[in-house]
Design a protein that fits this description.
The chain is an alpha+beta fold. It is built from 4 helices and 5 strands; from the N terminus they run H-E-H-E-E-H-E-E-H. The chain has helices spanning 9-26, 34-52, 76-87, 126-138; strands at residues 32-33, 56-62, 70-71, 95-104, 107-113. The strands form 2 sheets. A 3-stranded mixed sheet has the order 2-4-5, with helices on one face. It has a two-stranded antiparallel ribbon with strand order 1-3. A hairpin with a 2-residue loop joins strand 4 (95-104) and strand 5. Helix 2 runs parallel beside helix 3. It starts with 8 loop residues before the first helix and ends in a 15-residue tail after the last helix. The relative contact order is 0.13.
């Protein structure tokens, strides 16, 4: 968009800068507010929507959470990146990525669903294996990660 001198390019560059700033500064902290983490996801999704709106419908749901909930940074993004890498990027067809976050009784639940499409250029399982390791280190015996494959989802 910058090469085409799009009027939207300055805003997009600022959004990208905000993502990088969050990764560098907030990503180094032990915990961040859930609100900050969700705001990071919103910016990431907005940029992905611009990249792949013709190929992807994003079904995102979360409530506005108060700042007193804390989470280790950059965990949730790993699932969203995985959904886009394996469900959106390898296709030219219209697909849907579902990403829902709920909070009840001080338990965060994230549900994600995406198509499983062949992608011969990627390493399989690296992102989810890293997520498993991080969860085990950060939340020992306090987390559950369930991954199911059902009818190409």
């Amino acid at each position: 968009m910058t090469l085409k001198k799009s009027d939207n390019a300055p805003d997009l560059v600022m959004q990208l800068a905000n993502l990088l700033r969050y990764s560098v500064y907030e990503g180094q902290k032990a915990q961040v507010s859930l609100e900050k983490e969700i705001n990071y996801l919103k910016v990431f999704i907005a940029l992905q929507h611009l990249r792949s709106a013709e190929r992807c419908n994003f079904d995102m749901q979360w409530h506005e959470y108060q700042q007193h909930y804390l989470i280790s940074p950059l965990l949730l993004i790993m699932i969203l990146e995985n959904a886009i890498k394996h469900g959106v990027e390898p296709t030219s067809q219209k697909v849907t990525v579902v990403f829902k976050i709920t909070m009840a009784d001080n338990i965060l639940t994230l549900f994600s669903s995406n198509p499983i499409l062949p992608n011969n250029n990627s390493e399989h399982g690296v992102g989810l294996n890293n997520l498993r390791r991080r969860l085990t280190l950060l939340y020992p015996n306090k987390h559950t990660l369930i991954i199911n494959e059902n009818k190409n989802l």
